[in-house]
Amino acid sequence: MKRYAITGTTSGIGLETAKALTGDGHEVLMLNRNQEKAETAWQALPHPDNATLIPCDLADLSKVQEAADTIKAQYDRLDGLINNAGGIFPERTESPDGIEFTFAVNHLGHFLLTQELAPLLKQGDKPRIINVSSEAHKSGKPDFNDIELKQNYSGFQAYGNAKLYNIYFAQSLAEQLKADGISANAVHPGFVYTRFGRDFKGWVRRIFSLLYPFMIDQQKGAAPIIELASTEKGYDNSGIYFKRHKPAKAAPV
User: Fold this and answer.
1) Residue 44 has pLDDT above 60, yes or no
2) Burial of 70 per CB tally in 10 Å (0-12, 13-18, 19+)
3) Between 20 and 30 A from 106 (CA), which of 89, 155, 161, 212?
4) Which long-range contacts link 152-157 to residues 24+ away (Cβ below 8 Å)?
5) Is the pLDDT of residue 192 over 80?
6) Which is nearest to 239 in space by CA: 190, 141, 169, 189?
7) Is the pTM of this model over 0.90?
8) Which three-class secondary structure state does DSSP give residue 176?
9) Helix 218-230 and helix 12-23, axial crossing angle in degrees, nearest 10
10) Alpha helix locations (H) across the chain?
């Protein structure tokens, strides 16, 4: 039995990943902001006894720290960390820490969580970190003088930047943690039918509605994440960006 921590498991590909891993007999720590939804998701697992709910609000760095401290106090190792949670937001808002919300939720919260849990991963069996990114990273054009897009906010730009940072982070971790035997990858799971983009209104919402019939289901979206988490492929190819099941070239930037 291996032990995985996964963020964002109340629905979508995060929940499908948790279902698959617990169904295969592995232990999963389910990190979520909304505990009512987390309880419902936990009950939907094939083997709920293999999973533990841990509160974690990625937008609030103090809550991320609390989640990491809870895990470190209760467990002596992790075999995998799947940084899955995220979202796209039409209006610019700020986290409780005063940080642009897209950047906080999609990247910065995971950055802190990963750094805090690295000591447990060092004790794991072929440990790995998987950052769920997106082909949307190709629209990323970060301005490091305005990383929080205070001057010219766009929900799509903020999201594309954050998904690019997920890849930067995986590449950096692959170098930093190689000596500790920890691998790190980023993966685009595909254009998956979830609640993604449904907070938008008007013409953007209409475009998403036209695209829904062409999206893949959540189980297919979770499949490449599960593969990277549970097979040699996910450990032997550190630092790689995967587009679904195959290594791919990330954007030149």
Assistant:
1) yes
2) middle
3) 212
4) 153/92, 153/100, 155/88, 155/89, 155/90, 155/91, 155/102, 155/200, 156/88
5) no
6) 169
7) yes
8) helix
9) 50
10) 12-23, 35-43, 61-74, 101-103, 109-121, 155-176, 202-211, 218-230, 233-236
- CA atoms of 29 and 52, how far apart (whole Å): 5
As separate numbers, helices (DSSP H) first and strands (DSSP E) second, the chain gives: 9, 8
Among 159, 165, 168, 241, the active-site one is: 159
Find all residues with CB under 8 Å of 168, minimum gap 6, and list them.
none
Least confident of 47-61, 147-161, 209-223: 209-223
Cα–Cα distance for residue pair 106/122, rounded to 1 Å: 24
Among 1-15, 164-178, 184-198, where is mean pLDDT lowest?
184-198
Contact at 8 Å (CB) between 51 and 43? no
CB 124 within 8 A of CB 229: no
Residue type, 73: A
For residue 120, how many other CB atoms are within 10 A of its CB?
A: 20
Is residue 4 part of the annotated active site? The answer reads: no
Angstrom CA distances, 39 to 44, 105, 194, stand at 9, 21, 19
Contact status, residue 215 vs residue 193, Cβ threshold 8 Å: yes
The pLDDT, as a whole number, for residue 198 is 53
Sheet holding 241-243, edge to edge: 51-55, 27-32, 3-7, 80-83, 128-132, 183-188, 241-243, 246-248
